[in-house]
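Box 3.1. Reading complex inputs
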Amino acid sequence: MTTITVAVAVAVGLLVGPWLRTAIFAKRLPRCDPARRHCPGCSRLVLASGPFGIVAPVALSGRCPSCRWRIGAPPAVIEVVSAGLLGLLALRVHPLLVLAALGVVGAAGIVLGSIDATTRRLPDAILAPTLVVVVSLLVVAGIADHRPAHLIGALIGGAAAFAGYSLLVLVTAGLGFGDCKLAGLLGLVLGWFGWEPLIAGVTLGFLLAALYLLTRLLAGRFSRSERIALGPFMLVGAFAVLLVAA
Ligand SMILES: [Zn+2]
């Protein structure tokens, strides 16, 4: 990948950062409620909407302009994570359409991981459009770049990861259906690169979650009733493998 591609990816990451911040604020809710628009501290409208939907991002400072209530991550955190991830993907992933698909999963992953970590929810409002865009990009990439085997691998990988997690949901209490849908999304992009990255990405997610639980156990902070959000670990595991395997 050229330096220009990486520079463009970093710039896109910085530019979409405020919108990822906005999506996290709007959907980080304990239930499946409509998107949040008001500051929880003073009820001031912090997400103004215009004729094309939401037009202004939430305060980049991460605090309500009126009451200084924390309404998002500290300044630049989301933007730097987004720019860094897209830049790393641009260094490693090609062709361009596959890079775009992984970029979309990465950007959505930042939003989904942030929401899941605090609410243990993975909203369909973010998962569903991401899935549609990613499948479309991979189908076009598979046809345009004559990579039918990669495309079939992606579709089977997505289906297999979704099915595997669905089975786990049936036998364990700690997982939700959102985890299955996220697994399907990650299975798609991992499966594009083959079975080994798929298995490695899924396994690494579980290992990271287990390591986190073990750390809490050793620190004496673990309680039997505790349930952790698996989404952030699934995302980190998948992207670590993607950056190595791509
Ligand atoms: Zn406020």
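In summary: The first strand starts at residue 49 and ends at 50.
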